[in-house]
Amino acid sequence: MFKIIIFIILTSALFFRGAFKVPPQLPEQTLLTTGIISSIPEYQQHALQFVFIPDHTSQKIFLRWYYPPPAQLHIGDQWMLNISIKPAWQHWLLTQHMNAIGTVKFNYNNQLLLNNQAKILDYPLQKIRESIYTHLKETLHNKTGLGFISALTIGMRDQITQAQWDDLRGTGTNHLMAIAGLHIGFVFGFIFFLSNKLWRFSEKFMLWVPAQEAGLFIGLSGALLYAALSGFAIPAKRAAIMLSIFVLTQLSRRHINIFFSYFMAIMGVIIIDPLSIFTPTFWLSFIAVFLLIYGLAGRTGKLSFWEHWTHAQWIMAVGLIPVNLLFFEQISWIGFIANAIAIPFVGFVILPLCLTGIVFHSLWTVAEFLLMHFWIIMHGLAQLPHTQHYQIISISEFFRCSVGVLLVLSPRGFPGQFLGWIWLISIFR
Asked: Which residues are within 8 A (CB) of 406 and not within 5 positions of it... i.e. 6 or more apart?
């Protein structure tokens, strides 16, 4: 295990050596250039945002257009734009592999040169996503839940209003509006369960491949397709890597320690996407998985499904306190209740309707109707007074709180478990 950790650190160090080199051919400047829109344009922070690749280069420029033309912009379109750019030094841009950031300046030379929307072979995945997004907006035109449904279906969150984000943050459920490990895990689990059961109806299939292994492979395939619907955004890509490594270790037919699979997943993510280590979601994902492995160790066979579910929610509520305070300087006291209600409702009801709606669009209307009525409960919880705690903690307080969490979540009867509560509570002020 320690050899794996050392290998991860050395490998990531090699990748990081070249990770922060901003191309010298992109100094801060204003220029008129032609290029291709390579991402689905979306409105954020009062501007239309998209990735622009200048012709004859592979450089990615993150652009904001504050006063775009009335005609819609589409992925694959070629434009001539007057842009002001500067090197991308911000962590969030580097983790997106952007070379520069800029804005589109008003200029009469800004014009569409080629509408490439019909050519599906150029940016095929993104154009499929854009097509789904177009159908979503046509089906749920001006409906309140459009932002939620598009976020769960293809990872597009630009239609979520500020008031809705406030409710999500107030209940600690904002993680539900990103295609990441939780949603990909739901898709994998559902497809695995269904294919595993159906596979057993055929003796020929059973002799060919065991139902368990067939279910794992089919479930992984479905989960990867769902990750693709997000455009392989960083959280989805990370979850897909972790799930793939887990399934491959299971299909190897060898007894592999779960912590070995865990560290293999970390290594895989860092090798494939080394800059993700600088994002809070990287640490949240792996710390959450570690806490579940640690907190449920030796208990899974002794608990019913609902006991298992409730205990997992308890582990997340207590275990992520130090991480949330360190990264976001905020925790929601109502989050345990809100997530215990929202996660199964979104995962078992809304998410299947969203994905099935890609084929049968009317199901998006059903999902939006159910979600908006359910959101009355979430909004009520978000409006409760004194449910948010804001605090900045030091690194020493973070480690003290983390030790307290490990003691609190340790197996029943573990010596010194009560000290964990003292260490955990002592950081609050």
From this structure: 294, 420
What digits encode the pLDDT tens for the residues 206-264?
889 999 999 999 999 999 999 999 988 888 988 898 899 888 888 887 777 788 888 88
The average pLDDT across 131-144 equals: 92
Q: Which residues are bridge partners to 64 per DSSP?
A: 49, 103
Give the integer Cα–Cα distance in Å for 32 and 111. 11
Query: Cβ(37)–Cβ(52) under 8 Å?
Result: yes
Phi/psi of residue 256, each to 5°? -120, 130
**Crossing angle (nearest 10°) for helices 2-19 and 258-272:** 10
Residues in Cβ contact with 196 at an 8 Å cutoff, skipping those fewer than 6 apart: 211, 212, 214, 215
Run of H or E residues at 103: strand 100-104
| String of DSSP letters for 327-388 | HHSEEETTHHHHHHHHHHHIIIIIHHHHHHTTTSTHHHHHHHHHHHHHHHHHHHHHTSTT-E
Q: Kindly report the CA angle at 247 between 242 and 251, in degrees rounded to 5?
A: 150
**Dist. CA 108–CA 143, nearest whole Å:** 35
Determine contact, residues 29/84, Cβ cutoff 8 Å.
yes
pLDDT for the residue 215? 93
Q: Is the pLDDT score of 347 beyond 80?
A: yes
Which residue is associated with the tokens 């299947």? Answer: 352
Q: Which residues are CB-contacts of 113 (< 8 A; sequence separation ≥ 6)?
A: 34, 78, 79, 80
Check if the beta carbon of residue 424 is closer than 8 Å to that of residue 401: yes
3-state SS, one letter per residue, for 36-96: EECCCCEEECCEEEEEEEECCCCCCEEEEECCCCCCCCCCCCEEEEEEEEEECCCHHHHHC
Percent of the chain with pLDDT over 70: 90
Can you say whether the dihedral through the CA atoms of 67, 73, 79, 85 is positive or negative?
A: positive
3-state secondary structure 164-178: HHHHHHHHCCHHHHC
156-174 in b/e form (b: 16+ CB < 10 A) is bbbbbeeebeebbbbbbbb
Spatial separation of the C-alpha atoms in residues 161 and 384, rounded to whole Å = 20
Distances (CA, A) of 188 to 184, 241, 285, 316: 6, 13, 17, 21
Of the candidates 326, 339, 345, which has an alpha carbon nearest to the alpha carbon of residue 401? 326
The secondary element (H helix, E strand) that includes residue 32 is strand 29-37
Q: Tell me the pTM.
A: 0.83
